[in-house]
Design goal:
single chain, 273 residues, alpha+beta, six-stranded antiparallel barrel, five-stranded antiparallel beta sheet, 6 helices, 14 strands, globular, Trypsin-like peptidase domain-containing protein
Length: 273
């Protein structure tokens, strides 16, 4: 398996309705509009408890502006740099790396893009990027996705360009990327950016087994745009990425992730090497 630069990626011929809002914005349907209205009604206090570990499970709310939430950001097309509001289409997050310049997301979020096509805004809220806008310089996708868009390979890394000699990890910190964790060993917190909202939402629950290679989580309101959202466990490690089966799921209430194994571990080594 080899990490591949953008120029080697192929644009998909079709995309399921759930996740990539550049293709389809699910919130235009009456059902999704109802889901979006429910999210703000939940309290930020409830979410703060969830972020700390113990707390209400299966509750989605606007993410508090914490050090952990700032490691998560939104992906945009590069031509949106001067006008970010309403332009994000997927989610990514910063993970530890020797060069302090690595983000992780779903492979289907990067598929078809070329070098310099995308930008990443960690901690994005309400049209503003308080920790800067970072150019996505190179993507690393597993062979299982690059050659056949296999759902068990729907995870990717991207190197972002430094700014002023500093990496994105210097600006917001990062999380460990951990493979080989048993599904459901602990609850995880999923934080991401629905395409119809200008702030991230978050939900904590315990993942369950969908198959040997896929895990699922029950959380409401994780609609289009949340692909690539990190699943962070109690040790603050990324143990899943929203994507995989049905590119993340065909409904807003059930989401999926690849079970990180040998392929994900090798991809991380490629991206950091």
């Amino acid at each position: 398996m080899t990490g591949r630069p953008f120029s080697h990626l192929r644009r998909p011929q079709w995309v399921p309705m759930k996740r990539i809002s550049r293709i389809s914005r699910r919130a235009t349907s009456p059902l999704c509009a109802a889901v979006v209205l429910l999210v703000p009604a939940l309290t930020s206090a409830s979410l703060a408890n969830a972020d700390d570990g113990p707390g209400p499970l299966g509750v989605t709310a606007v993410a508090a502006d914490t050090a952990q939430a700032r490691k998560v950001g939104a992906l945009f097309d590069a031509d949106r740099r001067s006008s970010l509001a309403g332009g994000h289409f997927c989610t990514a997050s910063v993970v530890y790396s020797p060069h302090r310049n690595l983000i992780v997301t779903a492979a289907h979020c990067l598929n078809g893009s070329k070098d310099g096509d995308l930008i990443f805004a960690p901690g994005y809220r309400d049209g503003r990027a308080p920790y800067g806008v970072w150019k996505v310089r190179r993507a690393f996708l597993p062979d299982g996705w690059a050659k056949g868009q296999h759902e068990d390979s729907d995870v990717a890394f991207a190197v972002v360009a430094n700014k002023g000699g500093k990496g994105v990890e210097d600006a917001v910190g990062g999380n460990p990327f951990v493979t080989g964790m048993a599904t459901g060993a602990t609850a995880v917190t999923v934080t991401g950016y629905p395409s119809t909202r200008e702030a991230p939402v978050s939900c904590t629950n315990r993942p369950t087994v969908h198959s040997r290679t896929q895990q699922r989580i029950d959380c409401p309101g994780l609609s289009g745009g949340t692909s690539g959202s990190p699943w962070v466990n109690g040790d603050k490690a990324v143990v899943g990425i929203l994507g995989g089966h049905e590119k993340g799921g065909s409904t807003d209430d059930i989401s999926y992730s690849v079970v990180f194994g040998a392929e994900a571990a090798e991809l991380y080594r490629d991206a950091t090497g």
